[in-house]
Sequence to fold (177 residues):
Amino acid sequence: MSIDALKERLPEYAKDLKLNLGSLAAEVSLNTQQRAGTFVVSALASRNAEVTRGIVAEFGPQLSPEALHAAKAAAAMMGMNNVYYRFVHLVGGDYPRLPARLRMNIIGKPGVEKVDFELWSLAASAVNGCGMCMTSHEQMVRESGLSQEQVQAAVRIASVVHAVAAVLEGEDALAGI
Fold:
């Protein structure tokens, strides 16, 4: 499985996704590690086995073992944090003042540059829809020197990977009718 195989699986009505997937695979505003890790974390956050296999086959080899581990860890942590902090943000009350009491050690020592881990956390948070986490991670990466264009590129990758996952799941569901 590869990105080309994913593009081939997309139906005609999703032609724009094919084009976007191809152009984002060559996105120049992010370095190779940032781009590849963003694809990996976005695929994992999208929870589609076929997309995850295709994306990791394509972009995993562009990452060191440590960076691949960190991208997976970012997806795992945001899978937890996005639910918790979205609840805290939306419900309000006393919850924002309470300690989370959730283990998040990997965030302090992710094994890659902190800015890359934060960028990947931002991409996963965009897929998972946690406004509080998106705001926090966007601020961190901007303070670490990434431009608005780099942030936008990461979120564009996340949005397209998520859309590809949704279309393929929909098509698989329709095939069973």
Residues 11 and 171 are 8 Å apart (CA to CA). Residues 148-175 form the longest helix (28 residues).
